[in-house]
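Appendix B, record 7
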Amino acid sequence: MNNFLISSALNKSRVFILQKSELDKRFDPFYYVPELVELEKKILSKQPKKLRDYVKGIASGATPKTTESEKYYTEKENGIPFLRVQNLSPTGVLEFNDCKYINEETHNRMLKRSQVSAGDLLVKITCVGRMAVASVAPEGFEGNINQHVCVIKTGSKEISETLAAFLNSDIGEKLASRRSTGGTRPALDYPALISIPIIEDKRILQITEKVITQKQNNEAEAEKLLSSIDDYLLNELGIKIPEPPENTLKNRMFITKVNAISGNRFDPFFHQSYFIEVENAIKSSKFRTDILRNQLSFIESGSRPKGGATRDDEGILSLGGEHVNSFCEVQVRSAKYIPIEFHQSILSTETKLNDILFVKDGATTGKVGMINKLEYTGQNINEHVFLLRPISTINAFYLVNYLNSKVAQIMIKKLIAGATVTGITKDAIKSLHIPIPSIDKQKEIANHITGIRQQAQQLKDKTKELLKKASEEIEEILLN
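Structure tokens (predicted):
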């Protein structure tokens, strides 16, 4: 065996020979990839601690049934943050753009063991992609986690931040991935996770903090660009949004006639004079207006089979509100699937290029995004979104940006109904008034806004470059 040679044409990281004496508990080849074995030897030569040396408590959470959302979930305003993999960041800072919220009863009873407090270390332990992505709960934080994340009580925010900086480095990720098990869905159990060797070096944290500062500056500049879209769009359409009235008791009281509310909703919120003023501003646009019903060839909500969607990637993507990003695009980071057979039974909501997803209920009602990538066509949608398909004489990019504008969102807010679970009906969406410029003007507006969004995206993409450079600096510190 010692004399056996492997052809130089083969990839030595994928084809290699081990002696029986080199096997250590596990028999899967990935654990023994030469690059990973050599890396761990170098780290162990530094006489590191293990993650277990910092653990004062550890737990993972669970996911309450989405089919019983009213029982477990709630709105942001009166809810507890329910953290998932997508809320963790390789910078170590939690991100809340796509955060769900659970009610206090679920937090204090069903998920009591996985409660998260300020300074706790949160680590990704399952799902595809980068392993052991880690973030730290900020000051004053109270939250919870699902089963794909674990919370580690270290007793110190500084310790948690130092550990997160190491785990988020390429070295930390490789050491974590080596310990993961599973095929299409790798996972780290507790013994594997806490066995990760840790080199404690304050310089790592300093590098990470510098990246965080630069990231925040880039994102602030990107947000400024995105905020300019509304001013540009409304100026081009000739719409001036009236100032909302001061929130006083006198302004909240008004009188209306019976014939004004007949055949409509009876709640006072819907009939506020401010909404009438905004609608009149839209109708006074430079261009003719039309109701959305006449600009769509199709509008319908989706569905999922009994038991909901799964993470079995052999099915069809089930797209929902969580897959709509801040650039009004569909972007899937955490995928769920429905069986092909079920998809074929609801082909009416199969996605096509330039379709628009409109969130119809929950905390993000009114959020919109367009399918502008072929990889998201031929998929389907869940029951929490409407699929809007514009007619051929309206530019889909223009329409999605108008629906996302401040003036349209004010009118969408008017149409939202419900108490504990809010939402909007199909007929209500169809009644929205839309300014209709010429198709050439629509394209001009759409192209200009797309240019702004691209600039904002470029600023956000700089963070990836910063993280790559930081990882190289960290590797230099740890290995040399």
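Remarks on this record: The chain is about 35% helix and 15% strand. The radius of gyration is 26 Å.
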